[in-house]
């Protein structure tokens, strides 16, 4: 009986040890560092090349974009073949159907990203607002492939392989939920506390943007 209990105890200990095991991803590795320009409102502007075209294009790095896109004027000037789709994009201006240019590559210093499907949008308004030509927006289709570290002091973008990232000391670590966009739970403090979810959007050019429905439902400014 004692021997049976001893064997059972060893079995349980072995099970608990295995149950506590977990796979730890390797540390991410630096691929390249890219300089960027910061526009009004903190907008990040990156230089990149499309396919074999030698011209340097201006892209906004936008965590609030669920894909990656090109300006319609650029697509026409480069004579890029486009494909009709039933996919829609939702923005401040509402929801609309977009066309795509499929299977293209994007080159930046030290890195080339292949097999990207760009949706087409009109960025003439952004160009006029920022006073510099906006050729496209880099969003989730690029960001999901890498660990990206933004240094606003040095104006550099460090791109790493997927893996465990060691955060520098100081500051606060946010842990948003992800679909195609980073959603951060946060609270607004007035005479009461209003808890909700917000898109963490580096391309908004604003500190905080509230939807009309949210303002009316929460009566935050009453």
Overview of this protein structure:
This protein is α+β, with helices and mostly antiparallel strands. The chain has five helices and 15 strands. It has helices at residues 2-19, 72-77, 124-130, 140-143, 212-218, and strands spanning 30-35, 37-38, 44-50, 57-61, 68-71, 88-91, 94-97, 100-108, 111-121, 136-138, 147-151, 156-160, 177-178, 182-189, 193-199. The strands form four sheets. The protein has a six-stranded mixed barrel. It has a three-stranded antiparallel β-sheet with strand order 1-12-11, with no helix packed on it. A hairpin with a 3-residue loop joins strand 13 (177-178) and strand 14 (182-189). The N and C termini lie far apart (74 Å). 18% of the residues are buried.
């Amino acid at each position: 009986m004692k021997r049976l209990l001893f064997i059972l105890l060893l079995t349980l200990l072995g099970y608990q040890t295995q149950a506590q095991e977990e796979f730890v991803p390797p540390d991410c590795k630096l691929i390249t560092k890219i300089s960027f320009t910061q526009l009004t409102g903190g907008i990040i502007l990156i230089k990149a090349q499309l396919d074999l075209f030698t011209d340097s294009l201006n892209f906004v790095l936008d965590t609030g974009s669920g894909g990656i896109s090109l300006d319609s004027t650029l697509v026409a000037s480069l004579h890029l073949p486009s494909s009709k789709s039933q996919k829609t994009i939702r923005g401040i201006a509402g929801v609309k159907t977009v066309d795509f240019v499929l299977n293209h590559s994007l080159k930046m210093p030290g890195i080339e990203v292949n097999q990207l499907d760009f949706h087409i949008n009109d960025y003439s308004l952004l160009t006029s607002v920022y006073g510099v030509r906006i050729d496209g927006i880099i969003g989730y289709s690029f960001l999901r492939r890498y660990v990206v570290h933004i240094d606003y002091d040095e104006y550099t973008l460090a791109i790493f392989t997927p893996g465990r990232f060691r955060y520098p000391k100081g500051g606060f670590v946010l842990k948003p939920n992800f679909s195609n966009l980073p959603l951060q739970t946060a609270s607004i403090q007035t005479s009461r506390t209003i808890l909700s979810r917000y898109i963490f959007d580096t391309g908004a050019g604003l500190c905080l943007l509230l939807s009309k429905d949210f303002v009316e439902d929460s009566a935050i400014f009453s």
